[in-house]
Amino acid sequence: MSSNLKSQIETLKVSECITKADLNLYDSPECNRLATQATAGRYLQVISLVETPDITSIEVCLREDCYPGWVAISDFGLIQPATIPYQFQSIVLEDIQKSIPDVIAFTHKAMTVDNYYLWGGTLGPNYDCSGLMQAAFRSVGIWLPRDAYQQEAFTETVEITELQPGDLVFFGTPIKATHVGLYLGDGKYIHSSGKDKGRNGIGIDILSEQGDVVSQSYYQQLRGAGRVIKSFDPA
Questions:
Q1: What angle do CA 42, 138, 216 make, to 5 degrees?
Q2: Which residue in 165, 169, 188 sits closest to 177, CA to CA?
Q3: What are the two backbone dihedrals, phi and then psi, of residue 166, each rounded to the nearest 5 degrees?
Q4: Closest CA relative to residue 172, chosen from 117, 107, 217
């Protein structure tokens, strides 16, 4: 790596940055497995440069949801210093509730486009489960944490018997939430599920043992539900 490029990276480490285009973030310095994606205009902080004979990548942290990852050095040009610092925008509960129909509409529209389940996908048309939830709420100005277990901890717990459209439904093990869907009402929820035990993309299932094999499989993993009552504050 040239000394000039290293100097540019060191300069970015002391300033808040913004993405000039959609950007992939990976879960390790090797940059061989997607962790999340960032739309153009998202804020991030450069943490460090990882440089070895076989690996050159940049460790970063996204500001809006505090999610870490690594950016391939080939994508370094997609990052630039931010001219205006990130400012958290609070949103009151009443406005969140008014936005729920638009959140639901986002997921329905996403389902009409050809898509498949993409681990780490948050940009569309291909999403993972929590990426779809984050994108749907982000579309109305509400930020959620990135992963299903983080979204579970962030939301206000509600009983399954008290579910309302727009609530998040969580699945997984007794130890951890590993999957999430958006409740639609009438016992139905929409989610992006994987290829092996799901629909390999966005689909609608029911919270019941009476559904098909996919609905039954997820119902057996049901952990609980949560309601979004605020936007994530990275402070």
A1: 125
A2: 169
A3: 100, -15
A4: 217
- Is-contact 37 120, C-beta < 8 A? yes
Whether residue 125 is preceded by a cis peptide bond, meaning omega within 30 degrees of 0, is: yes
Question: What order of strands is seen across the sheet that includes strand 43-51?
Answer: 34-38, 23-26, 68-72, 56-62, 43-51, 16-19, 79-81
- pLDDT tens, residue by residue, 151-193: 999 999 999 999 999 999 999 999 999 999 999 999 999 999 9
**Average pLDDT for 28-52:** 95
- Report whether pLDDT(8) > 80: no
Has this prediction a pTM greater than 0.90?
yes
Could you count the other beta carbons within 10 Å of the beta carbon of residue 208? 11
DSSP letters spanning the chain: --HHHHHHHHHHTTSEEEESS-EEEESSTT--SEEEEE-TT-EEEEEEEEE-SS-EEEEEEETTT--EEEEEGGGGGGEEE-SS--------HHHHHHHHHHHHHHHHHHHHS-----TT--SSSS--HHHHHHHHHHTTT----SSHHHHHHHSEEE-GGG--TT-EEEEE-SS-EEEEEEEEETTEEEEEE-TTTS-SEEEEEESSTTS-HHHHHHHTTEEEEEE--S-----
- Residue 2: the pLDDT is 67
